[in-house]
Amino acid sequence: MSILRKTILLGKDLKKIAFKRTEKNSNESGKKTFRSYDIERPDRHANERSTILHPSTMNVVDVVQETNDAISLVMTRQDGKPVNFVPGMFFTVIVSIEGVEHRRAYSISSSSLENQTVAITIKRIENGLVSSWIHENIFPGSSLRVLGPSGQFTVRPVADHQRFLLLVAGGSGVTPIMSIAKSLLATESQSQIYLLYGNRSVDDVIFRDELARLQHQFQDRFIVRHILEVSPTENFEAGAGRLDRTTFQKELKDILKQVPLTSLDFYVCGPEPMMEGVNLALKEQGVAEGRIHQERFTPAPHRAIDRQYQTQAITIHANGKTLRGVVKPGETLLEAGLSLSSDMVFSCVMGGCGRCRVKLLSGEVDMEEPNCLTPDERNQRYALACVSHPLTPVEIVVATPSTPL
Amino acid sequence: MNTPLDSIRNILPIKVRNRVDALVEAADIFASMRSPSVMRAIAPSAVRGLVFSVGKHSDTTDMPAAHAAHFNWAYPHDHAEMHELYERAKRGQWNGSDLPWSTSVDPLDPNIPVAPLDLIDLQVGKSLGIEFKGQDQQKMVHSMSSWMLSQFLHGEQGALLAAAQVTESVEFYDGKLYGSTQVMDEGRHVEVFHRYLTEKLGKMYHINDNLFVIIDALMTDSRWDLKFLGMQIMVEGLALGAFGFLYQSTKEPLLKEMLKYVIQDEARHVHYGVLALKDHVNKSLSTSERNEREDWAFEVALLMRNRFMAYEVYEEWFDGTHVTRDQWRQLMMNSPGMQRFRKTMFTRLVPNIREIGLLSERIRPHYEKAGLGIYFTGQAAPEVTGEQMVDELDREVA
């Protein structure tokens, strides 16, 4: 490039600068050397690590009877601050029943936009110790100890996003799905949401009225399809049958008439057989694993308090680093790892979500049961750090987003 | 040590003094240009960048290109090593959206600093009459880390457009195929740095004048090998060092994860530059042409060294106060964090210049004089892969 051309270029630049000077408001003092953007700074007292290991207390301000056996607890923080969460997250509720502490995960069902209060929805399970206790003992004015919110089954609403979601819920699995749907409908005006919701009978449909209202309000971009095992006596539009693999395949076919498979992301939460069926059907269609999101909760483990453990040595490989320390009697691998400030990954802290899965390179552990580890994973010597106690010295590898196990 | 010039400078109002300081610095750069041909190649860009700060005054800048797009209709397999690099690059692709973006980042949290707190040394500041009170240190680290990452971002935009130019002009067909992956890589880097700055740090600084000069000079030069030298060796090489520094020192998990991926891409980019230039410099160029490249590279190294004075942060914090540009420079020069930063940057760059044959006995004394002689030994790109580099960085920390 010749000097001449470069000089001409410079002339053009200078013209631009001069023009900008005259255009500028005179009240703008000083040189601005950067641009600012609004960011969401975490509330340091509510950040994940501290809330997940240190319970906080919530005030229950309302109890809503959703169906015969499901209630929503509307709660506020004790300090009156908003509850920040991403739709799809859950709280781990801690209750003490006859002197024994129990933990259960309950998903948030309210919209992340109305964050002065937050609601969790709890279905009473037959012979379910904790759910029954909550149903009988929690009233407006009660308080509840919780960990979280946390979780990976989340969708963060972004105003200018356009996406297509197929939400699949079975029974009380609708809870996180409801939060996702409400938050996204209110934020993303270009996104389209399909909800397939399976129940036994019409009386079991949680959020029945609210879903109808949302469907009416957002009719062009929220399509709800109920599936009922027992056909309703009243006037209620629904497909018949159990929401299993075959039913799902049939329903999916209808949806694919309106939106191509490749545009859809799937969020699935419900009983294990339904999840399995949906998963298989989607895999069969060639849907990539990364687009199928599932929330799985198994009954919570019992703290193995009756067992006596010895102090054991532990070696942790995480994020390319190796840390060595000990696990004290009664401590879990997760607790030991965190006190070594290792980069441990975890979420529900009760063996229910699989997020803290680690690989055992050597040694034996005792895991609190039941938990969500599959037999396959056990055979491959995986363990859940949050419910594992070492019986011998152990060496483990922690998965990180970049190095999945 | 007051020269008469300093005495004159000291009685000037601060605003004027700062302007003089900036011009003196620019004059130093011009004075160091050792040959008329280097002068011709860089001076116009230096005028645009250093004297008029063109990059800061508008959202857009045009840099007309003058190179030839080189076609080959025979599609030869003409460079086995580049072909291998192409294969490796295809396998090494990753998706920026898959990074753990849900990580909460608090740039003011001293427990999880984004960049090391000693980038600005409070004691050094105090001795220079620059006081930081209360949360000032954290705010300063927020500014400095946003500034560093902003310059990385602008460098990556330069790399994106330069990689496209290099892909057009490179004569090896295997080089073109490889180049296509680099264009994708750079696009991804722009994506993740921009997202991190705007979503997590909330602050993006304007392009630094020195960086602007380098980008402008190589984008508008018609010679393909100078584009390679400038982008693949100098800008990428320095970036590799800079990313390594931040990768080692940040405690913020998202940034660390992001840099880990970026570093592995960068290692390929520098390797490509070395592959393309090594034979070219040693076999195809005449002595005078080779000397000219050598001088050009040295000039760019100087611009790079001076680039890291973070004057944009100075202007944000101290423009119009009693703190002068010169005092700020002292603070930058003497804060241990910044010293480590500069050191890590050049440890990757200088060995690569050596590897391609642009560090002859003729130029070495000048590097030494500029304080860059300590990096003469050290591993060059072909001797180290991205994975090794990350491992090495991790080991140094552990």
Give a brief outline of the structure.
The complex is a heterodimer of chains A (405) and B (398). With 405 residues, chain A is an alpha/beta fold.
Verbal overview:
The complex is a heterodimer of chains A (405) and B (398). With 405 residues, chain A is of the alpha/beta class. In chain A, strands 5-4-7-2-3-6 form a six-stranded antiparallel beta sheet. A six-stranded parallel beta sheet of chain A has the order 11-10-9-8-12-13, sandwiched between helices. In chain A, helix 6 crosses helix 7. Chain A is globular. About 4% of the residues of chain A have low confidence. With 398 residues, chain B is an all-alpha fold. Chain B contains 17 helices and one strand. Chain B is globular and about 65 Å long. The interface between A and B is large, with 40 and 56 residues.
SSE layout and pairing:
The complex is a heterodimer of chains A (405) and B (398).
Chain A: H1 3-23, E1 34-36, H2 48-53, E2 56-67, E3 70-77, E4 90-97, E5 100-107, E6 118-123, H3 129-137, E7 143-150, E8 164-170, H4 174-187, E9 192-199, H5 208-217, E10 222-228, E11 239-240, H6 245-255, E12 264-269, H7 272-284, E13 292-295, E14 312-318, E15 321-327, H8 333-339, E16 357-362, E17 365-367, H9 375-379, E18 382-384, E19 388-390, E20 394-398
Parallel strand pairs in A: 8-9, 8-12, 9-10, 10-11, 12-13, 14-20
Antiparallel strand pairs in A: 2-3, 2-7, 3-6, 4-5, 4-7, 14-15, 16-18, 16-20, 17-19
Helix pairs in contact in A: 6-7
Chain B: H1 4-11, H2 14-32, H3 36-51, H4 54-57, H5 80-91, H6 122-127, H7 136-169, H8 173-201, E1 203-205, H9 209-220, H10 224-249, H11 253-284, H12 287-307, H13 311-318, H14 325-334, H15 336-355, H16 364-369, H17 386-397
Helix pairs in contact in B: 2-3, 3-9, 3-12, 5-8, 5-11, 7-8, 7-9, 7-10, 8-11, 9-10, 9-12, 10-11, 10-12, 10-15, 10-17, 11-17
